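Notes for week 9. Today we move from apo structures to complexes. The key idea is that a small molecule is not decoration. When we ask for a structure prediction with flavin-adenine dinucleotide present, the ligand SMILES becomes part of the input, just like the chain. The input block below holds both the sequence and the ligand string. Read it once before you look at the output, and try to guess where the molecule might sit.
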Amino acid sequence: MPLPDSTDVFVIGGGPAGLAAAIAARRRGFDVTVADCSAPPIDKACGEGIMPNGIAAARALGIDLSLAGGVPFRGIRFREGQTSVEAAFPHGCGLGLRRTALHRLMVDCAEAAGVTLVWNARVTGLPENGAIADGCKVRARWIVGADGGHSPVRRWAGLDACHRDSRRYGSRRHYRAAAANGLMEIHWGQGCQLYITPVGASEICVVLVSRDPHLRLDDALPQFPEVARRVAAAGPSTLERGGISASRRLKAVCRGNVALVGDASGSVDVITGEGLCLLFQQAVALAGALAADDLGAYQAAHRRIGRRPEFMSRLMLLMDASGRLRDRAIRAMASRPRLFAHMLAMHVGELSPSAFAIDGLALGWQMLTL
Ligand SMILES: Cc1cc2nc3c(=O)[nH]c(=O)nc-3n(C[C@H](O)[C@H](O)[C@H](O)COP(=O)(O)OP(=O)(O)OC[C@H]3O[C@@H](n4cnc5c(N)ncnc54)[C@H](O)[C@@H]3O)c2cc1C
């Protein structure tokens, strides 16, 4: 598609956040154009696990993720050394979905909704009331920055100021192996985690996350002998791909006629598996705010949407930082799996953090008495 001279909403970045924001704005009746410097299907290092609340958030946008294939998983397993604990989601299943399949589906949904999609078009600046894409000015009433964690739009709009900004490093590879029992697995090691998502009948996605930018999957595998055995027998089906896991909360996500969405607007640690759910929810909130001509409402909704995942992210990073705490917490939950089930229910938004407070006390007591 050629770039138009003008549009109501100009979305910079055609990853999941840009496409979700475009679909939501189109459903509100806006004329919407998306420009991305790559072309579909766009791949990215990602754990490829979508929690049940993420599937529901996509459905609220009219996107049925099951149409892209993928593999449902019924819950989560934590494992450290010989100790493991697992629980099912209170309702529904999560979905393991290859990133390229997700992107293809979202492009189809955006096209069907009437969004103008322009690929291989790099945006290089934000003059007044528009953006420069491929060297030409596109006039727009609203600019949406969906250009990922390194977001140039965030910088151009003067929205870089953060309350919190820390990073870890992720590394992803697929293997031809079957998943364990329909679960997403998180294996805890010293200073790193491996998480495994089933993404095909006999394919898994393995992600390593750590604070060490040089650590690679093959270096970390000896810490996880059971996983090492499984993947050695299977063999990789893709090359290793790296990405940054930022825990970032911005002071503001909009200014003037510019609003940020997805990783451009801040993010939680990837171990939460919440990135996609967050951006689907943000997209709906943003479209509502554009329709009401009130970006302040988006700022407030963005803060509200981020609270629970940020809390879970901090909890997980505490477990990453302290081996003693992690060991006790996982053993305590293994001896009382109901506590883990409640934690998972809180994670997917089915139990409020205040309702979890009593379980939190029980967990603390169990950790002290182990
Ligand atoms: C290792 C790892 C594992 C993860 N695991 C999970 C998981 O299991 N579950 C989950 O829900 N989330 C996970 N996430 C998070 C999830 O991948 C992100 O939240 C999500 O990709 C954010 O999408 P986005 O559209 O905001 O950004 P991106 O996917 O980064 O898309 C940004 C787009 O903007 C385009 N762009 C950038 N600059 C310009 C420009 N100047 N002009 C035009 N286009 C531009 C890029 O080409 C790109 O297509 C993980 C992330 C990492 C790093």
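The two ends are 63 Å apart (CA to CA).
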